[in-house]
């Protein structure tokens, strides 16, 4: 039997992929990430399915549930918010499943930064303004950043930033980024992207701490920093330009 690690997306139940929904409907065991997964998504599980909220479960207990289901001949849906490739704690679960000989697959989901960009109605790569996106976070009490990945070091690149798990460090973010991006650099914050309680804050880097404090945003938010958020001028993409289309035999 198989454990399916399914990216549940940013929160809206209809942003679950078709593949994820099909698997969820056939797995008789589902482990899900507490308040991050909406009830409407769990309603897709088959009648009588075992539903396990892992919000306050330690890793050995979570893996124990997965291994026990496998031993019983049951497929398992392991629902994580967003996409499995980012901040999902997949690696430590996968390592223990490998050791136990339990097979697993990954089903990708809509990442939070993509849902947040959609809420902003913004493309995060704008020709002539910014063509790179750096997805990162800040150090917390639970996990420090590796050497060379502290915010000050990363800020030296000057590329557009998407900061996860960082809203509670607004002042530190402003202090560390201002020397590299400037106090007037555009910032956008999307909390609870795609959910009914979604909130959007647009401001400058200098105003970020004050605005987040006013809104009471301390978690479940993505913070974007970069000129692509408010490009005054930009080049149009060559891909769809009349210049490219006039070139005989031109292709991608």
TrEMBL record:
Keyword terms, alphabetized: Cobalamin biosynthesis, Methyltransferase, S-adenosyl-L-methionine, Transferase
Residues annotated as domain Tetrapyrrole methylase: 2-208
Pfam families documented for this protein: TP_methylase
Pathway: Cofactor biosynthesis; adenosylcobalamin biosynthesis
Record PROSITE patterns: SUMT_1, SUMT_2
Gene Ontology biological-process entries: cobalamin biosynthetic process; methylation
MF annotations from Gene Ontology: precorrin-4 C11-methyltransferase activity
Similarity comment: Belongs to the precorrin methyltransferase family.
NCBIfam families named in the record: cobM_cbiF
Name of the protein in question: Precorrin-4 C(11)-methyltransferase
Protein species of origin: Tsukamurella pseudospumae
């Amino acid at each position: 039997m198989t454990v399916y690690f399914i990216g549940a997306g940013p929160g809206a139940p209809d942003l679950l992929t078709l593949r994820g929904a099909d698997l969820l409907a056939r797995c008789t065991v589902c482990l899900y990430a507490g308040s991050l997964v909406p009830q409407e998504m769990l309603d897709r599980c088959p009648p009588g399915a075992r539903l396990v909220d892992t919000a306050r479960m330690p890793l050995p207990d979570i893996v124990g549930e997965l291994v026990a289901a496998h031993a019983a001949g049951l497929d398992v849906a392991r629902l994580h918010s967003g996409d499995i490739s980012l901040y999902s704690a997949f690696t430590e679960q996968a390592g223990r499943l490998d050791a136990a000989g339990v097979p697993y697959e990954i089903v990708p989901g809509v990442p939070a930064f993509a849902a947040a960009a959609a809420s902003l109605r913004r493309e995060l790569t704008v020709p002539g303004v910014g063509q790179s996106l750096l997805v990162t976070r800040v150090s917390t009490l639970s996990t420090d950043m590796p050497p060379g990945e502290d915010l000050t070091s990363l800020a030296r690149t000057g590329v557009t930033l998407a900061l996860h798990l960082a809203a509670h460090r607004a002042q530190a973010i402003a202090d560390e980024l201002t020397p590299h991006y400037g106090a007037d650099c555009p910032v956008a914050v999307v909390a609870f992207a795609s959910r009914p309680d979604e909130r959007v804050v647009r401001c400058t880097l200098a105003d970020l701490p004050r605005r987040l404090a006013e809104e009471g945003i301390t978690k479940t938010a993505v913070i974007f920093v970069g000129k692509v958020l408010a490009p005054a001028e930009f080049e149009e993409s060559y891909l769809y330009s009349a210049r490219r289309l006039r070139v005989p035999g031109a292709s991608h």
